[in-house]
Amino acid sequence: MILLADRNFAAAGLLAKIAATEADVLVRLKNSRNTPVLRRYPDGSYLSILGSLQVRVIDCHITIATTAGATPGSTGWHNPA
Known about the structure:
Elements: E1 2-5, H1 12-19, E2 24-29, E3 39-40, E4 46-50, E5 53-66, E6 69-80
Parallel strand pairs: 1-2
Antiparallel strand pairs: 2-6, 3-4, 4-5, 5-6
């Protein structure tokens, strides 16, 4: 099972409870949220921590395309390690 969550559900306690079910979690964090880099991986992602939960951070850039044009954006996705 994988749970996808938006940035308003990135509370460390909530993510720890979800991860305890052994479900995979992919959650977007707010751009202003800083996570410490504990170890970098060859693919550019890194190991970090949210509360007591170890997570893998994947920084990605997205483009939102609409009939009015395209808007670039960036986001950080966190997956419990």
